[in-house]
Each structure stands twice: as C-alpha cells, then as structure tokens.
Amino acid sequence: MKKYIALLVFFIAHTVTAQENVLTAQDVAKIEAITNIVISQDGQKIAYQKVVPANPLEENVPAKSHLYIYDLSSKESTPLVTDYSISNIKFRPGSGSITFTAKRDKDEATAVYEMQPGGGDATKIYEFQTSISSYDWHSNGTQLAFVANKPQDKRENELPYTPEVYETDLENSTAFVTNLNDPTPKELAVEGHVTSVQWSPKGSQLAVAAAPTSLVDDFYTSQKIYIVDANTLNITAEVDHKGKQGPMKWSPDGKRIAFIAGEDQHDPIDGRLFIAEVTGGSPKILQKDFKGKFDGLDWKDNKTLYIQVSEGVYSSLGTIGLDGKMDKLFREEAMNITRFAVAGNNTIATTANTAQHPDELFVIKPKAGTAERITTSNPWLAEEKMGKQEVITYKAADGLEIEGILIHPINKSGKSPLITVVHGGPEAHYSNGWLTSYNMPGQLGAGEGYAVFYPNYRGSTGRGIEFAKSSQGDPAGLEFDDIIDGVDYLIENYDIDKDKVGVTGGSYGGYATAWMATRHTKRFAAGVMSVGISNNISKWGTSDIPEEMFLVHARKRIWDDYEFYLERSPIFYADQAETPLLILHGKDDTRVNPGQSYELYRHIKTRTETPVRLVLYPGEGHGNRKSTARYDYNLRMMQWFDTYLKDGSITLPDANIAPDGQ
User: Fold this and answer.
1) How many domains does the chain have?
2) Cα dist. 269→81, 464, 507, 558, 616 in Å?
3) Residue 641's CATH number
4) Which H or E run includes 469?
5) What would the pLDDT profile of 243-301 be if each residue is shown by its tens digit?
6) pLDDT tens, residue by residue, 501-542
7) Would 499 be classed as within a structural domain?
8) Considering the entire predicted model, what is its pTM?
9) Which partner from 90, 101, 302, 387 sits 20 to 30 angstroms from 526, CA to CA?
10) Which of 285, 247, 238 lies closest to 264 in space, CA to CA?
C-alpha cells in the first residue's frame, strides 16, 4: 500500500510538472550551444561552431560541431557545414576564405579544408600522414604551421596477440611547417610533445608550446614556450617559467608574447597573465595580486591587451597595459562570457550564456557598451518556465566569505528539497550563467520542485591566487566544510528541508559527494557520485596525473603520511554510511580509475545495509561524451533524487531506465 501511494504521489507530481512546460531530460539532451568563434580582420564576418547533440533515443554518439558564418552587414547567419564535424576554424589571410580541420568519410586522417563564406563544398587543401590536431596561418596565407604525430612504421608482431605496455613507446606530437605551393613538411627542432604552434606577425619566428612527453601529467606540469627561427627551424630562445600553460599570443610588432599560465608550479590553474620577450628568459607577471582569473587575451596594440577575466561568479572584458593598468570594457552581471575574438576595427565577437540560455553568439561594437545577441540556438527555451537564479554569499565557520549560486524551485509548497552540486577540480568555479546539463540538475531540478545549490568553496578559481591555493594540503577539510556551511545557511534563510538534502558532483565533486555520503552521512539524504575519489592512497597510483596532484593539491607525498590520506578517504568512513549512494563511472576513465568506484561500492555494500548502486559506462572516460550515455546519466540522477528526497523510499529504484515521458 505504501509503495502504491508513493508511486501515485510521484505520478501526480510529474503530471503537474509536465503540464507547466518545464525542462525534461529529453530537453536537456537536445540543447545546442555556440562554441569556437573567429572574426574577420575587417570585422564584417564571424565564423562560429555550433554543437549539435545526437538524439539519444536513436544513436549513442558524441555531439557534432557544425560551421556557420554571420554577416554583420546583412545580419544573416548561414550554415556552411552541417553533415560532419569540424574544428580549428580560421580566416585565411589575404583570401577571406574559411579554413578548418575535419576528417571526412574517405579521409584516413584529419586534414585542413577551405571553403568560401558564401558556401559550397569544402576543398581539402592540405593533408598529412597523421591527423592534424591544430594549425596556424603565416600572414602570407600560403604557409602553414601545424601539429601532428610523426608517421610511424608499424611493427609486425610475430605473435597473434599484442599486449599494451603501459607508458612505453609514447607518441609525441611534433610541429611542422609547409608551403602549400610546395607541400613538403619540415619539422621544427623542438623536442618533446608539441601542444601548439603560432607564427609571429611577420612570419620570421614561431612560438611553440611543448611538454617533455605526451603524458597528461607532463602537459599539466611541465610545458614550456620556445621561440623558433622560421628559416633554420631551430630554437633561439625559451621562456623560463614553471606553471600550468594556457593560451599565448604574439604582440603586433613581434617583440613580445603574452600568455596565461599558473603563477608557479603550485598554482592549480592557468589564470595569471604574463609578458615574455622574444629573447626568452623570465616573463613579467601583470596584476600579480588580481583577485580574479585571466581567461582570455588578445593584443589591441603593442602596449595594450584585450582581456577576459572572471571575478567570483561574474565575468567581464577589458584592457590591460604593459604597466598593469586595467580598464573595464564590458560587464553585465547576468551574462557569463566564455570566449571572445577581436577584429581590426575593434569589433568584438563573444560567446556568453545566462541563467535562461546556454552559450550564444554576441557582438559588441566599438564604444557601444552593450552586447547584441546574434544567435538563438534553442528558441523553444523561451517557452520553458525557469526557476529564479540568485547569487548568494555566506560566511564559513572560520569567517571566510564564500560565494554560491542558488536556483529556486519553480513551484514551492512548504520546505524545499535541496540538491547540492559540487564542481570538480577543485580548480574551477561556477559562474552566474547557464547551469543545467546532463550531470547538473539546474533548471531540470527546479522544474521538479528542487532548490539547486552551486557552492564555490575554498580552492575554487576566480578569486585570486591565495583563494585558489587555500585548500592545498587539506583534502576534504575546510573546503568541504564550506559546502556544509552553505547548506546550513540555506536551511536557515531559504526554507530548505534539512532532512531532504542531496549532493552530487563529478571528479573532485565526486570526491565531495562520497565524503558527504560517508563522513557527513547524517547531513545528506541522497548522493549521486560521478568519476569520484574514494581512496586517496590507491587513487595516486592509478591516475594519469600523480605529479599534478602532488604539486597543486596534496603538497606532500602519500608515503610520508599514509594514515592522513586514508583518514581523508571516504572508504575510511564507509561503515557508517547511511546516505543512499548512486555511483556512476566511465569504464575507460584514466584520470580517476573506475577502481575508485568499485572500492566504495564494495565497502558500502559489504559493511552496511544502505542502498548503493554502481553504474558503468563502456566507451566513456572522465565524464560522458555520447548522447545516450549522457541521457541515461541524467535520468538515473533524477530518479535517485526523486526516490530518496521526494518519495522517502528506503529501497533501490528500478535498475532499468525508461525514457522520460514513458
């Protein structure tokens, strides 16, 4: 009888929700968004990519990336490529054509294609024996610098079986230059694994970013910038800096390189701005004490840069001089800016999202002060009812001010159940924009009566280097206490039901979820953990970033204090777990090995009577990329929260998932 009543309540609640035109899992699965953008030098055309997911009910594949062009004179967008995926869009110097990389049906590797802004079929203009991962045009429009793996002769194995030898025979990417009139590639004399290459404005030099090997750990911890002579292809200088490496850009006169990187090797994020001379040596940091994060850059002139920055949950565009003086150009608290591109006439193209929509294309005219929205990728969203989104601040137990974002439930009757969404990293942060995806309940949760909370706990980015480093050496300590302090603040001030608090997150957010479901199990009534950490000792030896973890998180070796790391592991408290826990993991995850999920599942299942379920996704890694896998994740996440936060059930929900609405 109790089961019948619970099902009836669930049916009525979802019927009311369906009638109100709120987001569903199928809606979330079809959301499109604008990603990469480039603007022509004259500021008249913008080429952009639109991410279009596949129908999860028909095929389980990654989203496609289509090519569009917007004409600022006619104010019209034209689709150029919609039948296959493209990347690395650029305007070819001197021709006005658009180039991109793609691997079409008959291609053996990813090649460079060209097409006219007016449309027509794309022409393959350069291919290599292996896939081209990135490229850059010389200012003359005929020479290319590109990054690809060296062709390798396949070794014949005399046995009918070939094992994999871990971290051996690594394939490094190399930088090449070629002239399309004589397309024989020449290799740059840069050892290691090249990640990007860029011509100087006059084409006499190239800037190359490279790591010692293709290991992910080296990518994060050991990249350097090298200056290469375009004639000899030899290194002439290198920038002496240790820290995570971000984007770089030549000054117009070719005398300097601006780049975004970590302040030092212990900075968890590439969020500081540096200027390096082409003669190499130590770079100069600009605005060392900036209480924010540099996200993007471009040169305005030889003494000034355009910059994109985050400050807490807000973002803005501005300028900065070589003397460090900063000026704001554009800031709208309701818009979260995600990237930008600048034309020669200072017209700015940018992508941004808001609480009502994901990334769209906007244009900011010189001295306009306002952003004109160009695209509407999901017009049906305007008909959906959205929960109010509010930026909140609260004090942690030690007095530190913490920021967060709260999405209110659309319908409220009495105290609200709460879903807490913890970001990964922890070197990341939530911005005041679109916060709904396959793994973030957001407006989907609001439509089903949940309040949804996004805390930017200590160790988050966007608030300066001191705040970003403030959680180091204290895993699951004050950083996760900040989250509980935020929940307490919401219970006291926003009419949240203290007995119906859930938690979810992926990666480091999955670690937080596991920690809350074990160490602080009395506080949380349900948890959905994704690709998370359960055992800090075994995690170190099975991850592809053990050195990065040491440098920017742990700050001491596990073998120097095994007991400490065990006591900061959710498995240590698994015997007291009372929080029903859904564990989700990609079977091919190399960042957080699926063994972390196996361990926690086995501990809880063996040592308690608490509901626990482990779901593995074949073909997925550190987060799901394919359409049906994402849709399944979303359905399971909401089913789990509905079961334990709404229905008050103590039994496991059905393991078989049906599409919503069926």
Assistant:
1) 1
2) 34, 10, 16, 22, 30
3) 3.40.50.1820
4) helix 465-469
5) 999 999 999 999 999 999 999 999 999 999 999 999 999 999 999 999 999 999 999 99
6) 999 999 999 999 999 999 999 999 999 999 999 999 999 999
7) yes
8) 0.95
9) 387
10) 285
